[in-house]
Design a protein that fits this description.
The complex is a heterodimer of chains A (about 280) and B (about 425). Chain A is mostly helical and about 280 residues long. Chain A has one domain. Chain B is of the alpha+beta class. Helices cover about 25% and strands about 35% of the residues of chain B. In chain B, helix 3 packs across helix 4. The chains are: A mainly alpha (about 280), B alpha+beta (about 425). The interface between A and B is large, with 39 and 49 residues. Strand 1 of chain A pairs antiparallel with strand 4 of chain B, so a sheet runs across the interface.
């Protein structure tokens, strides 16, 4: 019998063939993704319809509160509901993937304790659920854009870049939280809270142009420190066109910040993943 | 050829004594701890970190085609070893070199999702165990056939009976084609019929030249399947070698302690003013080379007591209980008249009578065939181990006794 491979097991040795192992296990990545997808709406009546109902209903409420009641000023020439829906779509993508990634290790704890494979597969496979919801939500957006007869322009070319950036951000924060979650169950309490606060701290139901008129206020810089602000602004801009407010200069620091955090998070994850089984 | 070489592997866990009960710390604990230490208030002994070596300096090598049984008490380090060999956890020290593709079965149906159908779970579990999609496809029909679940392929496994669940899980893993197979206690589940199937499959696997590491408490299965055995105790590899030798050593170590009780003087012996026990001893007549009681071993029970009264009509009554509390039998001696002094009695329990299991003996001294003078409850206990010859079935043999009554079978007519 041919011995195809020789494996050496010792403390700290796992790192050597990690990325090769990850590639070898790509089928597992796909099948875990498919599992998460097919389980998602099992035993529901409406099924994937929830991916339409949730953003649509949120949009209605937000338009009622911010546009009708509070009379917030939207961007010129852009239907308020459409702007809100674009914001909700990208925010839901971020918050769902971020949440799923953060819980991915704990949710798969039976696999962690009983089998070996590169642990990064778990957070990576958990991304798919948020992504499918995102696609459905985009379809809803397209329908409503047609209704308002508001069509995108050349900015649409940058749409994939903003989706990718959102994904990078959710991985950057999610991986870090996923590791923390193994040892500290506080994280599970913290995540819904972050998502809830983020919804209002980010320009989802309002436009950053309203913040812009407060230049000089002490919280102005604080607002732009949030990396999600420019990502969301940029995403809305790529869909809604030039009329949408987008401070391009804020994007550079966001990209730098996101890439740096992503690097640190992957490093931290790799460092800790061998001890998951001892703490889970 | 050596396919697994383990050199000085150790695995250390840190046990937090103060917070032992709580497995998952919260941030608050960590912060308050840091805080206390920062202000010098943290008392040194508040949190006592104790090192626990689940494995200590373990060395062994396994040759290709070896079938190694790993035995030992719970907590001896068997599972930790399997986890290290499966790369689930890293050793603290030492290294293991493995040549060949490894598949570990630490659980039947790892990663089964209750909401998914049998069909979906076959692909999921196969992928988790490291099979490629085309491999699973090729083995699919054979898996379904082996598990006998073809009618329920499109039913979510949460609706499966536990038996079906286990069968499906084992069927998938049985179709792995690794060079090295690591198995933890899979035989502990499933009905007798299925266990037989599993062992048969494992034998097939080993006969095809593959290497098997098999952790089990089912010693009969280990003896039948394995050619070598490792005996672990307190994280150390205590003994390795030929299966029969290692299993004998393990069993003799397990069963030694409660076989006898002796009291030197009447003052120490349990009893009353009229009678006091001197000793009760279980003496097995071991077959040559064996150091433990199995179902074929004849046993003698010796009992001695002091009669303290001048003259009394006494007899002994002995109860044998299963560990679960049921009385298996009660035997009594005839009543005789004894003078003051030592009285002794011997009971013969033949081989091939008790089934495998744990037993407890109670003895009472009876006066005038009617008054219980003293009962020595749960005086001694012993284990009877399983032993099989000429069978290929290793499920639990039912019943409290396993007598070999005359039971003849013959062909009475030949149909032509």
């Amino acid at each position: 019998m041919a011995h195809s491979e020789e494996v050496i097991i010792e403390a700290g040795h796992g790192a050597k063939n990690y990325w090769r192992d990850l590639w070898k296990n790509r089928e597992l990545l796909l099948i875990l993704s498919r599992r998460d997808l097919s389980v998602r709406y099992k035993q529901t009546v409406v099924g994937a319809g929830w991916a339409v109902i949730r953003p649509f209903a949120t949009m209605l409420v937000m338009v009622f509160v911010f546009d009708k009641v509070a009379k917030f000023k939207g961007d010129e020439g852009i239907p308020y509901p459409l702007m809100v829906l674009a914001g909700i779509t990208i925010w839901n993508f971020f918050s769902t993937t971020f949440t799923q990634i953060s819980h991915s290790i704990l949710l798969n704890s039976n696999l962690v304790t009983k089998t070996y494979f590169p642990r990064l597969i778990m957070p990576l496979s958990s991304v798919v659920v948020g992504f499918v919801d995102f696609i459905i939500s985009i379809v809803l957006y397209v329908l409503i854009a047609i209704w308002y007869q508001h069509y995108p322009s050349w900015q649409l070319l940058l749409f994939p870049a903003f989706v990718l950036l959102t994904l990078a951000a959710s991985l950057a924060f999610g991986l870090f939280f996923a590791v923390m979650n193994v040892r500290f169950r506080d994280i599970a309490q913290l995540i819904p809270f972050i998502v809830q606060i983020g919804f209002y701290a980010c320009p989802i139901a309002y436009s950053s142009s309203m913040v812009e008129s407060n230049q000089g206020a002490w919280w102005y810089d604080l607002y732009y420190l949030n990396p999600m602000v420019s990502i969301i602004d940029g995403f809305k801009w790529s869909l809604l066109g030039d009329g949408a407010f987008f401070k391009v200069s804020s994007l550079y620091s966001t990209i730098g910040f996101t890439v740096a955090v992503l690097g640190i998070s992957i490093y931290y994850f790799r460092k800790e993943e061998n001890s998951f089984v001892d703490y889970i | 050829m050596e396919v697994i070489v383990a050199e000085d592997i150790s695995k250390k866990y840190i046990i937090d004594h103060q917070k032992k009960a709580r497995k998952n710390f919260t941030l608050r604990d960590t912060f308050s701890e840091k805080f206390k230490h920062f202000f010098g208030k943290g008392e040194e002994d508040e949190v006592e970190h104790e090192e626990f070596w689940a494995l200590r300096d373990v060395n062994f090598s396994v040759n290709q085609g070896d079938r190694v049984g790993i035995i030992g008490h719970n907590g001896a380090g068997k599972s930790t070893l399997l986890k290290i060999l499966s790369k689930i956890t890293e050793p603290t020290n030492g290294r293991v070199t493995i040549k060949g593709r490894v598949a570990s079965l630490l659980e039947v149906g790892t990663g089964f999702h209750p909401e998914l159908t049998g069909r979906e779970n076959i692909f999921l579990n196969g992928a988790i165990l490291g099979m490629k999609r085309h491999e699973i496809k090729a083995a699919f029909d054979s898996i379904v056939d082996f598990a006998g679940v073809d009618k329920f392929l499109d039913t979510p496994v949460k609706r499966y009976s536990s038996g079906m669940y286990v069968r499906l899980g084992f069927a998938i893993s049985a179709h792995l084609s690794p060079e090295i197979l690591i198995i933890d206690e899979v035989l502990a589940v499933g009905d007798a019929d299925f266990q037989k199937k599993c062992l048969g499959k494992m034998r097939d696997v080993s006969e095809s030249g593959r290497t098997i590491l098999f952790v089990s408490h089912n010693l009969a299965a280990v003896q039948s399947l394995c050619n070598r055995a490792f005996y672990f105790e307190h994280g150390r590899l205590k003994l390795q070698g030929d299966t029969t030798h290692v299993v004998n050593n393990y069993l003799s170590h397990v069963a030694k302690t409660t076989l006898e009780h002796t009291w030197e003087t009447p003052e120490e012996g349990p009893g009353t003013d009229e009678v006091r026990f001197r000793s009760i001893r279980v003496k097995p007549a071991y077959a040559s080379g064996k150091l433990y009681i199995d179902v074929t071993t004849p046993i003698k029970v010796h009992i001695e007591f002091w009669n303290m009264a001048e003259r009394a009509d006494l007899n002994l009554s002995l109860h044998l209980y299963a560990f679960t509390g049921e009385c298996i039998f009660n035997v009594g001696t005839t009543s005789q008249s004894f003078d003051k002094g030592l009285v002794s009695a011997t009971l013969d329990i033949p081989g091939n009578f008790l089934n495998d299991g744990s037993y407890v003996i109670s003895v009472m001294v009876v006066k005038d065939t009617s008054t219980v003078l003293y009962q020595l409850a749960e005086a001694v206990s012993f284990e009877v181990e399983d032993h099989r010859e000429g069978v290929t079935w290793y499920g639990k043999w039912p019943g409290y006794v396993r007598p070999q009554f005359n039971f003849q079978i013959s062909q009475s007519e030949v149909l032509v």
